[in-house]
Design a protein that fits this description.
26% strand, 5-stranded antiparallel sheet, 12 helices, 41% helix, 333 residues, alpha+beta, SH3 type barrels, Arc Repressor Mutant, subunit A
Length: 333
C-alpha cells in the first residue's frame, strides 16, 4: 500500500489534470477505504494549504488555486527513490507481474536509507528516465499462482503454446523457479511430458491448474547449473564450442560484457577480438551473431559456420529483386 505522502503526490497530480477525480476513484487507485482518502484530502487542504474544492456538477475535486503547489518535503533517501526513480519504474510496469515485485523492493530500499533531506520532486524526477522496452503483459493472478506453486512445491497442469512448433500441448510440470530475461518471464520446471527440465514462457500458458500433488524440490545449485549451461536461454542435447571473430568496431562493445561463464576472449592485432564460449543451442547463438551483421564472422564449429552461410544467402535473396517480394505479390493479386 502506498504511504500517505505517496498518495498525496499522486492525488495532487490527478486533480491538476482537470479530470475531477472523486473519492471512489482514489479508493480504487490505492486500494484503501473511503476514510483514508478523506483524511488525505484534509491534510492537503489544512496541512499543506492547497485549495482543493469539490465540484458537485462534475462529482469530483479540482484545484481552485493552481498557483499553490505542494511544498518541498523532508524526505528520506529511500522515499526519494520510491517517489521518483521507483515511480518511474512502476509506471513502465503497472498492470504487469513486475509491479508487486518492484513495490516490495522499493519498500525495502526505503527502509534502509534513513537520512532526511529537503527535496523538490520534479528536480529529481527530471534527471532520470527509465525505458523498460517492449513489455509482455501477463496476468498478475497467473504470475502469483505460479509463484505460489514454486514456493509450495505443488505440481501444475498446463495448456502450453509452443511458438517454435506452433502447437499447444497439455503438460504436467514440477515448477522450480521464475526467471526474468529481457522483460519476459519464464518458468523453470521439470516437464513430465518431455521427461526433462524445460523453460516455459509465462505469457504462453493458456490454461493452468495447481494440483494437490507435491514434488521434491531440487537443490538451487542444480537449477543454477542447468540455467548456466545455456548461452542465453535455450538448451539442447549436445554442447558446442563456438569461436566468433569480431571486427574492431564491434569488438569494443563485445569486450564490455561477460556473455557466458565459459567464454574466452582473445585480442587480435587489428583491434578486433575472437570470442569463444560453449552453447547447447546453435540456433540461439546464430540469432545473436546475426545482430552484428558483417562485423562478426563464425570460425568454428564448421556446422555453425554453414548455418550462418545458409541464413545469409536466404536473406540476400530477399533483397536481390528490384522490389520487395511482398510488394510484387500485392501488384500481382
Amino acid at each position: 500500500m502506498p504511504t500517505r505522502l505517496e498518495r498525496i503526490v499522486i492525488m495532487d497530480g490527478e486533480i491538476r489534470k482537470g479530470y475531477f477525480p472523486n473519492v471512489q476513484k482514489f479508493c480504487e487507485m490505492f486500494e484503501v477505504k473511503k476514510r483514508t482518502v478523506l483524511e488525505d484530502i484534509k491534510v492537503m487542504k489544512e496541512g499543506l494549504g492547497l485549495e482543493i474544492a469539490y465540484d458537485r456538477f462534475h462529482s469530483g475535486y479540482f484545484n481552485a488555486n493552481p498557483k499553490k503547489e505542494l511544498p518541498d518535503f523532508q524526505l528520506t533517501e529511500g522515499e526519494i527513490f520510491a517517489l521518483t526513480l521507483g515511480k518511474e519504474m512502476l509506471s513502465q510496469y503497472t498492470g504487469t507481474s513486475f509491479e508487486p515485485i518492484l513495490r516490495s523492493a522499493l519498500d525495502k530500499i526505503r527502509e534502509r536509507l534513513p537520512d532526511r533531506i529537503d527535496v523538490d520532486l520534479d528536480d529529481v524526477r527530471s534527471l532520470i528516465r527509465f525505458n523498460a522496452g517492449p513489455v509482455i503483459h501477463i496476468s498478475r493472478k497467473l504470475f502469483l499462482d505460479i509463484n505460489q506453486a514454486c514456493e509450495k512445491n505443488r505440481r501444475v497442469q498446463l495448456e502450453y503454446y509452443s511458438a517454435s512448433k506452433d502447437e499447444t500441448t497439455d503438460r504436467k510440470v514440477d515448477p522450480y523457479r521464475l526467471l526474468e530475461y529481457r522483460s519476459t518471464w519464464y518458468l523453470v520446471a521439470y516437464c513430465h511430458l518431455r521427461e526433462d527440465m524445460r523453460l516455459f514462457a509465462i505469457h504462453r500458458i493458456k490454461e493452468y491448474a495447481l494440483t494437490e500433488e507435491k514434488f521434491s524440490a531440487r537443490e538451487a545449485s542444480q537449477i543454477d547449473h542447468w540455467l548456466d549451461s545455456a548461452f542465453q536461454l535455450e538448451h539442447g542435447s549436445a554442447e558446442h564450442r563456438v569461436r566468433i571473430r569480431f571486427a574492431p568496431t564491434s569488438a569494443r562493445y563485445v569486450r564490455e560484457r561477460k556473455w557466458h561463464h565459459t567464454q574466452e576472449l582473445t585480442d587480435c592485432d587489428d583491434g578486433g577480438c575472437i570470442l569463444s564460449f560453449t552453447t547447447q543451442s546453435l540456433d540461439e547463438a546464430k540469432r545473436w551473431v546475426l545482430t552484428y551483421g558483417s562485423e562478426a564472422e563464425v570460425l568454428d564449429p564448421p556446422e555453425f559456420r554453414s548455418m550462418l552461410e545458409n541464413e545469409i544467402r536466404a536473406t540476400a535473396t530477399l533483397y536481390s529483386n528490384s522490389e520487395p517480394a511482398r510488394m510484387a505479390d500485392w501488384k500481382g493479386s
